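Table S2 (continued). Query chain:
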Amino acid sequence: MQKDIISLYEAKPSVYTKEHLKLFDSFISALNSGSIRACEPSDNDWKVNQWIKMGILVGFRMGILAEILWSDNKPFFDKHTIKEKLFRLEDQVRIVPGGSSARNGCFIAAGTTIMPPAFINIGAYVDSGTMVDSHALVGSCAQIGKNVHLSAGAMIGGVLEPIGSRPVIIEDEVFVGGNTGIYEGIIVKSKAVIASGTIITSSTPIFDSVHGTFLERDNGGSFTIPIGAVVVPGTRPLKSNPSYQIACPIIVKYRDTKTDKAVQLEQDLRIILD
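Corresponding output:
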């Protein structure tokens, strides 16, 4: 499949055949099952599978804008190749009614909970035990680990182009607070806590107050938030004019028993309320 997808992406045919559509359907099915993914762990790092993005872009190229019936026969309008993801009871994904949607070609593991309204885009990977809360977004090809909590209004950026760009990666047991934004290939390592209102991008310096240093860029040209780091919104003086401040997320500490209890309390309340 990989070889065929790459060939079709590079060929850019003016007319797509039934065989091309059949190849794309098989590709989407593999994404839905989680047997292939846009980015995967490799030797304590993450490997970007460029051909997955190529396949998604092929689907957009060959698609024709069409009216597609949604739940309750409400129409939406998108490329006919990129439909809504359909769930069954045996998938064991809890989706509360009220406007949530997942695009075909994303993987959502059993044990995931999706609160309305939330959106999960094509190519995304959401592992088991994760909560995608109200108004949260999981962008194209973003990778979300096990037992992650994406709080209300959390924006996890996606990426399709450039092909080689790394998507945002949230590893296992990370807590992402409300109204946060994590974009541009940021990796958040396991058990980290991102406080409400924190915005993290590849162009935003991140200060580690525990060690007294700024984080250095990683091999992907972005930043990696360390294991167990607790990150809060912050500012730093503008170099050209210290009278002004610009955004600078700050690691204020590393996860400890007190942090664990606070996160656990939030999780317990979530279970009760949901």
